Amino acid sequence: MNFLIISIGLLFLVERIGKYLLIEDFFKREDASSEAADRVAGLQVSILQPILSGDPTLWDCLASNLQMKTSYNTEFLWLIDDDDAQAQIGCRQLIERYPDAVVQLISLPQPPERISPKTFKLIAGLQQAQGQIIAVLDDDTILPDRGLDRAIPFLDRPAVGVAFGLPYYLNFSNIWSTLVSCVVNSGSLLTYVPYTFLTAPFTINGMFFVMKREVLDLVDGFSGLETAIVDDFAIAQHFRSHGYLLAQTPVCHGISTQIKDAAHYFTLLNRWFIFPQESILKSISIRELAIFYSTALIPTFVPAIVFGYLVLCPSAYAAIYGLIYFGVNAYILTQFNTKYFKNATPDRHILLLLAIQLVMPIHIILALLSPRRIDWRGKTIELKADGSFEIVKQRNVPEI
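RESULT FIELD:
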């Protein structure tokens, strides 16, 4: 029994250290590759941004992107709702504040029933985009300077159709925003990067991704994806079904979402964990599913297992192992925060990154047991078994 426990303990350490070494290798290799790629003079990038008002940090996010540095000519296509008065006013104020930025403000009616609001906007924006490169950027996402320059060269690799980035959260304005940021910052690199050493990516992070316009035209743009609520996975599958690969880039981009209260926190995390169940787990191959479980899902439970063993079977050896295991975790997360996340997580919250790893299994189990209903920016959406959805409660739009 002791031999078995020691073997399992060593396996847990090897998993964490091995992932760290793979992630370090990924950034060294991919950064060098993207820096060496030639840039095309005069190439234009059309940045499609579906926008929905409500988050107090929205305007800072949009303004940051208008000021980002890049070698490319850029145009922003801001896609807003006709009945979103706050977005109408706020976007026009930003356009006036940054006259040198090229921005098209495109106001659209509400999409038809059972049509994804985001995909509806992307289709409309694509019709007016002028660039040879199309970028999709969520309204809460902030691209770093030269982020486009590092991501776009990946599209020149053989058979690559979409290149995408790595998210981290940077809103620590209250306890609930802090918890969400720690959820992402403690697990994003460990989840998204290591499995790409075993297989080509089978989904994308939909907060930021780029595509060549000529490739988009070949796959008929975003048409046919309107009824899929998990739009990032639908786009990934769309390109893969046409023989294109997905490319994970080393571009780390910040996201600012202000979480109002406990209800907002739990509904957000519930949505995050329900979406993979309704998309990835139902559609990928057996081999990819095995990789997903072994590199992403099962390791999420390991910190809680280690902690549970320390509580249930206390001993000096267990305590020493616990210090080593969680010390390694703390070192890794601190390195990620310093090297790749621009110190987004304040030093006083580094231990919270460890603590949040202990409760992640609870969120996963709650999502498995909960009804297939999610709250998405004020809308209550019911997911259907066939991958479609129904909006059972519309967003309340404040009047101005």
